[in-house]
UniProtKB/TrEMBL annotation:
<comment type="similarity">
    <text>Belongs to the glutaredoxin family.</text>
</comment>
<protein>
    <recommendedName>
        <fullName>Glutaredoxin-like protein</fullName>
    </recommendedName>
</protein>
<dbReference type="InterPro" id="IPR036249">
    <property type="entry name" value="Thioredoxin-like_sf"/>
</dbReference>
<dbReference type="Pfam" id="PF05768">
    <property type="entry name" value="Glrx-like"/>
</dbReference>
<dbReference type="InterPro" id="IPR008554">
    <property type="entry name" value="Glutaredoxin-like"/>
</dbReference>
<dbReference type="InterPro" id="IPR052565">
    <property type="entry name" value="Glutaredoxin-like_YDR286C"/>
</dbReference>
<keyword id="KW-0249">Electron transport</keyword>
<keyword id="KW-0813">Transport</keyword>
Length: 115
């Protein structure tokens, strides 16, 4: 009987932990801002500096277009980096447009809060 109670307690603890993780993840799910870049890329470095005040509002994912596995992105953006996608959708290129970024982040945050 003690073994059963111990297992039940362990199951309750792990279920509660999973519940907390799910609640936490749903509240903190941030949009993904993808930066298509290469090395060197002074404009990309400049863009990352401009993005610093917003970094708590998205997850920055960098894609090096010169890597073999990213050849499709290289063909598409080789003359346009930096290029940004927000949650997989094209957002901007060449320079950070802070008003466009702010508008799209607010839109996503409102959707997240409402639903």
């Amino acid at each position: 009987m003690l073994l059963f109670q111990g297992n039940s307690m362990q199951l309750a603890r792990s279920s509660f932990g999973l519940f907390l993780r799910n609640c936490s993840a749903s509240k903190t799910a941030l949009p993904v801002l993808t930066l298509f870049t290469k090395d060197p890329c002074p404009l990309c470095d400049e863009a990352k500096e401009v993005l610093k005040p917003y970094k708590h509002r998205f997850i920055l994912q960098e894609v090096n277009i010169t890597l073999p596995e990213n050849s499709a992105w290289y063909e598409r953006y080789k003359f346009d980096i930096p290029v940004f996608h927000l949650n997989g959708q094209f957002l901007m290129m060449h320079r950070v447009n802070t008003s466009k970024l702010e508008k799209q982040l607010l839109k996503l945050e409102q959707q997240s809060a409402g639903g």
